[in-house]
Amino acid sequence: MAILVWLLCLTITASAQSADPPDQRPFLRIEAGMHTGIIRRIAVSEDGRLMATASDDKTARLWSLSDGKLLRTFCVPIGGANDGKINAVALSPDGRLLAAGGWDAYWRDQSKPVEMYAYLFDTVSGELVRRLGPQPAAYMDMGFSPDGRWLAATLSGAQGLRLWDANSGFAEPPPADFDYGDNSFALAFDRAGHVATTSDDGFVRLYNLPATSGETMTPIAT
């Protein structure tokens, strides 16, 4: 049976620094113990114990793969229509961090430039670790490098690729490639130090991972 509960859609902790934090008011929602919308992405921890899912129901969820049990539900700021739908989810290789992003409800004033955030959570405590952004478009896919150092995201609206560095606490300006002609819906890392992306502009791009934060990303092959 579904349980009617108060869900605080986002809790800002001291480590989740950013100006103008999201609305702190809770929303009354029905918690069904499962997704109630389309699941857009899944991610699995390196040891195969955990799976994360992202959904149009505006939640990300963490599951135990050994028994299928729901371990935790993660909420982001929500609003009407698409605001709060989660397109992308990623798990760090050790399963300790979950990143979720999509159509962020933080940006609501359409007279201002688009500002969308992704959200990085601690899977053990459930606390928000950091907001990532703002970026000028929705997050379409996210993934961690095999060593856990880099968190990558591809964006809608020809906004390309971003990478955040765990060594800086995900705080430094991310290395980026803005030179895309359309939405970028998918990315993948290999173990040799590369990340690849796809785009509706017709190109698959391959990159070397940067040495430091703040670099401009240039494909080594397309």
Salient structural properties:
17 strands; 222 residues; 4-stranded antiparallel beta sheet; mainly beta; Methylamine Dehydrogenase, Chain H; single chain; disordered N terminus
Describe, in plain words, how this protein is organized in 3D.
The protein has strands spanning 3-7, 27-31, 39-44, 50-55, 59-64, 70-75, 86-91, 97-102, 116-122, 128-135, 139-144, 150-155, 161-165, 176-177, 186-189, 194-198, 204-208. It has one domain: Methylamine Dehydrogenase, Chain H. The radius of gyration is 17 Å and the shape is globular. β9 and β10 (128-135) form a beta hairpin. The relative contact order is 0.12. The strands form 5 sheets. It has a 4-stranded antiparallel β-sheet with strand order 3-4-5-6, with no helix packed on it. A 4-stranded antiparallel β-sheet has the order 7-8-9-10, with no helix packed on it. A 4-stranded antiparallel β-sheet has the order 11-12-13-14, with no helix packed on it. It is an all-beta fold and 222 residues long.
How are the secondary structure elements laid out?
Elements: E1 3-7, E2 27-31, E3 39-44, E4 50-55, E5 59-64, E6 70-75, E7 86-91, E8 97-102, E9 116-122, E10 128-135, E11 139-144, E12 150-155, E13 161-165, E14 176-177, E15 186-189, E16 194-198, E17 204-208
